[in-house]
Design brief:
The structure is a single chain. This protein has 307 residues and is an alpha+beta fold. 37% of the residues lie in helices and 11% in strands. It is built from nine helices and eight strands. Strands 1, 2, 3, 4, 5, 6, 7 and 8 form an eight-stranded mixed beta sheet that branches. Strand 5 and strand 6 form a beta hairpin. Helix 1 packs parallel to helix 8.
């Protein structure tokens, strides 16, 4: 494995800020495209990674997520009064703590578990799928843990399957909203559901070229965050960028001396195919190298709960 590049070799953002004056604050997911793109990105990483079996497994899960979308009943969006109240009080309109099983929720889990059974996977993962599929209480416990952004000590595979179903459900909920209605709800918090970021991306979109957006690990909503600033604590002190010597410049670890954590930053204006989750998982080697530093992983990725 390559060595870590000099953590002090870059003291500011390594790319030009660009001419964006007022980029849109939020961008909502398109579920029909989200999981298809994620699968393709995971497969691209798999072709050049020692983690090929794991990445192909996750690509299969993304395929299952995409395949079940046409089979699901409509989700129930937040009512207009709740939306207005959330906006007035700078709160996320989709309350993770209030997510409860309903027809769409249950159908999503059942369909995802059925579709995932066809994915090529290790025996341990298949056994975990059978456990969570057959145990409603376990399903609900894993779901609450993932929604709370917590990292369980055991049952990582079961939690990953719950997260896969939640990603579909939450992305569908997010897609019902008006992006113009979303407002900042706190540092490091998704303006749609309040969840933590999985990574941030410098985008190349028209009207937002060079702007940086965090992405929610579950609902996939993206929100604008000023660059050269910690996405977790808002500090602008001691922000540096670490990467793998000889590796790609597309993914770096953005470290913060103030809180001692890091979240990966992706250069989407250089590679339009980046995906917040796929690139986080695909660059696991960077996390392994970061374990030798004083910085702790600050991002939440339901497929990397062991890190």
């Amino acid at each position: 494995m390559s060595s870590m590049s000099d953590p002090r070799s870059i003291e500011a953002d390594p790319t030009a800020i660009g001419g964006v004056v007022t980029p849109p604050f939020a961008r909502l997911p398109d579920p029909d495209a989200l999981f298809v793109k994620r699968s393709l990105r995971l497969r691209a990483y798999a072709e050049q990674s020692d983690l090929k079996p794991f990445l192909l497994f996750l690509a299969g899960v993304a395929d299952a997520q995409a395949a079940i979308l046409p089979l699901l009943p409509p989700v129930e969006p937040p009512d207009p009064e709740a939306l207005a109240r959330a906006r007035d009080n700078a709160m996320p309109p989709v309350d993770r703590a209030a997510i409860a099983p309903d027809a769409a929720f249950d159908a999503t889990f059942e369909a995802l578990f059925d579709a995932a059974a066809a994915v090529d996977q290790p025996d341990e993962a298949r056994a975990a799928l059978a456990r969570i599929k057959g145990d409603r209480a376990l399903r609900d416990t894993c779901s609450r843990t993932v929604l709370a952004g917590e990292r369980p000590d055991t049952g990582l595979a079961e939690h990953a399957y719950a997260a896969a179903a939640l990603q579909v459900h939450m992305a569908r909920l997010a897609a019902t909203l008006d992006p113009a209605s979303l407002v900042p709800v706190g540092t490091g918090a998704c303006p749609c559901c309040g969840g933590p970021p999985v990574s941030s991306t410098v985008v190349g979109w028209m009207g937002a070229d060079g702007a940086r957006y965090c992405t929610c690990a579950l609902c996939a909503t993206m929100w604008n965050v000023v660059r050269v600033k910690c996405t977790l604590c808002d500090s602008t002190k001691g922000i540096t960028y670490m990467g793998v010597d000889g590796g790609t410049d597309t993914v770096k670890a953005e470290t913060c001396d103030e809180c001692g954590r890091y979240v990966k930053i992706l250069q989407g204006q250089k590679d339009m195919l980046v995906d917040a989750v796929a690139d986080d998982v695909g660059s696991l080697g960077l996390d392994m190298l970061m374990q030798g530093t004083r910085y702790k992983r600050g991002a939440y990725d339901p497929f990397l709960l062991g890190y």
